[in-house]
Amino acid sequence: VSVYSDAKTASVAVANRIAKLIKAKQARGEKTVLGLATGATPVAVYGELVRRHKEEGLSFKNVITFNLDEYYPMKPTAAQSYVTFMYENLFSHIDIDKNNVHIPDGTLDADEVVAFCVEYERKIEELGGLDLQILGIGRTGHIGFNEPGSAPNSGTRMVTLDDLTRRDAARDFGGKADVPTKAITMGIGTIFKAREIILMAWSKKKAQIIKKAVEGEISGEVPATYLQLSDNVEFVLDVEAASDL
Ligand code: GLP
């Protein structure tokens, strides 16, 4: 667990680690495979990476990304889609090859989803796995959209969203009724295979769930508690999110 005075300082530290990883791999002629997250939490990390690209020439030409999740169904052009989020906050402002961007497809027919998820996992494996996975945490203790009840070895799949998660998303959709009931998410097992995992949380609002995730009994009731079983996880917190530890 690393605790920073505020979210901005912590975000810059995480962005620095990502930049260092990209540069080190680039110097060896290797690609960096990043697992990315959405939500308010990583916005300042992406902002810092954009700044480093624009002001310091940090290049993303050798970076391949896989996003954790997407609502289902969801049109990529919708304001609430994670595709829109990722382009607005990161991809539109950096030199990443758009063919190297992967985000679960919210437009699939229901009978195409399983094959898509198997292929998503295969692509990650083919590239040698995720070098670094960035995570936020939902108030249910979800990582990605792995809600309570998710299995520790779960892979990419379609899931049903928890009521609390849909309530938290209501503001973005103009009411809970319009929040999709389903999503496609990488599994806990997919996340676990990453060589490094950074879970970030800011503000008092996250203090209770962070206490459970870091110190609570390991259980599918709080999926983030599974992270306690990995040696490669760092919880990056601001003082407020760490205040119940
Ligand atoms: C959504 C995302 C999660 C994210 C969570 C927390 O549910 N699928 O990946 O961690 O929201 O969001 P925020 O960072 O806005 O608190």
What report would you give on this structure?
- The chain has 245 residues and is of the alpha/beta class.
- It has a single domain (2-238), classed as Rossmann fold (3-Layer(aba) Sandwich).
- It contains 7 helices and 10 strands.
- Helix 7 links the parallel strand 9 and strand 10 (233-238).
- It is globular, with a radius of gyration of 17 Å.
- 2-amino-2-deoxy-6-O-phosphono-alpha-D-glucopyranose binds next to loops.
- 2-amino-2-deoxy-6-O-phosphono-alpha-D-glucopyranose binds at residues 37-41, 68-69, 136-138, 144-145, 165.
Keywords:
binds 2-amino-2-deoxy-6-O-phosphono-alpha-D-glucopyranose; globular; Rossmann fold; 7 helices; alpha/beta; three-stranded antiparallel beta sheet
If strands are numbered along the chain, what order do they take across the biggest sheet? 1-10-9-6-2-3-5
Cα Rg: 17 Å
Range of strand content: 15-25%
Helix content: 25-40%
Helical element count?
A: 7
Would you state the CATH class?
A: Alpha Beta
* Uncertain ranges: none
Protein name: Glucosamine-6-phosphate deaminase
Organism: Mucilaginibacter celer
Domain Glucosamine/galactosamine-6-phosphate isomerase: 6-228
Helix/strand layout:
Elements: E1 2-4, H1 7-27, E2 32-36, H2 43-56, E3 63-67, E4 69-72, H3 82-89, E5 101-102, H4 113-126, E6 132-135, E7 157-160, H5 163-173, E8 182-185, H6 188-192, E9 196-201, H7 207-215, E10 233-238
Parallel strand pairs: 1-10, 2-3, 2-6, 3-5, 6-9, 9-10
Antiparallel strand pairs: 4-8, 7-8
Helix pairs in contact: 1-2
The structure holds 2-amino-2-deoxy-6-O-phosphono-alpha-D-glucopyranose.
2-amino-2-deoxy-6-O-phosphono-alpha-D-glucopyranose is lined by residues 37-41, 68-69, 136-138, 144-145, 165.
